[in-house]
Write a structure and sequence with these properties.
The chain contains six helices and nine strands, in the order ββααβββαβαβααββ. With 256 residues, it is of the alpha+beta class.
Length: 256
């Protein structure tokens, strides 16, 4: 049968990334407390396309993924990237996996346990060597220092999120990275709170007012004390409760 994708192209324009997006697929992750956690990832897979080829073989991405069926974890990202690069005759390969990760979390006073969801991603790239980035999004509460200083009765507070990307040496637990981050706002967020917990959380937030600038600096100090981390990017967004805009801060740094 005629293979149109492999036919030559005379426009002399290479393409940075071609491939498949938004493929939902089961993956298995190392869980610090329960050995393994099964979840569903949204997967993107790309390779570069030289100027002389009309297209790539989209079906091969799915074939490669199926070859690692139910063994798709951070330990296999390098092998998947190398297989993509080799079988698609590419100079670079890219793999993105976005997934929800669940951690059992105790309420601060009652000790009631609930499952907390965190949105995470692995970003893998291969040209000369494999580079992997772990991304976690951690919800927080922020309470405005200005509002507390100005008001005699209250202070405005809101939900926010800290998004952290890290490159690291060796192995890094998702749970450890999240724990490192979530105390850098005014208060962590919980999935289950009783009345005594709600009292504690609101009062704790009131005693720990932070700007988004404070949050990124707090996170940076924590990350720089983690020996495995060699690069980070921090983004904090506060979904303002009394403004018609959100507050934002970001910071990126190479450590080693």
């Amino acid at each position: 049968m005629r293979d149109l994708q492999s036919e030559p192209d005379n426009r002399n324009i290479p393409i940075d990334k071609v491939g498949v997006k938004n493929l939902r697929y089961p993956i298995c992750l190392s869980d610090k407390f329960h050995k393994k956690q099964h979840t569903i990832a949204n997967i993107n897979m790309y390779v570069n396309l030289p100027h002389n080829f009309r297209g790539t073989h989209m079906s091969r991405f799915i074939e490669i993924l199926n070859r690692f069926h139910r063994e798709i974890a951070i330990q296999n990202i390098g092998n998947i990237l190398r297989t993509m690069k080799q079988e698609l005759n590419a100079e670079s390969a890219h793999l993105e996996m976005a997934f929800p990760y669940f951690i059992l979390k105790k309420a601060p006073v009652s000790g009631e346990v609930g499952l907390m969801e965190y949105q995470c991603r692995f970003l893998g790239d291969l040209t000369d060597k494999v580079k992997i980035v772990l991304e976690v999004c951690v919800p927080i509460t922020t309470l405005c220092p200005c509002s507390k200083a100005l008001s005699t009765k209250s202070a405005h507070n809101q939900r926010g999120v800290i998004k952290v990307q890290v490159r690291f040496r060796g192995f890094l637990w998702i749970e450890d990275l999240i724990e490192l981050i979530e105390n850098c706002g005014s208060s962590p967020v919980y999935s289950l709170l009783k009345r005594e917990d709600e009292k504690y959380v609101t009062e704790h937030a009131y005693e720990n007012p932070v700007f988004v600038e404070d949050v990124v600096r707090n996170v940076a100090l924590k990350l720089e004390n983690c020996p495995q981390i060699i690069w980070y990017k921090i983004e904090t967004e506060s979904y303002e409760s009394i403004h018609n805009h959100d507050a934002y801060a970001s910071l990126e740094k190479k450590l080693k």
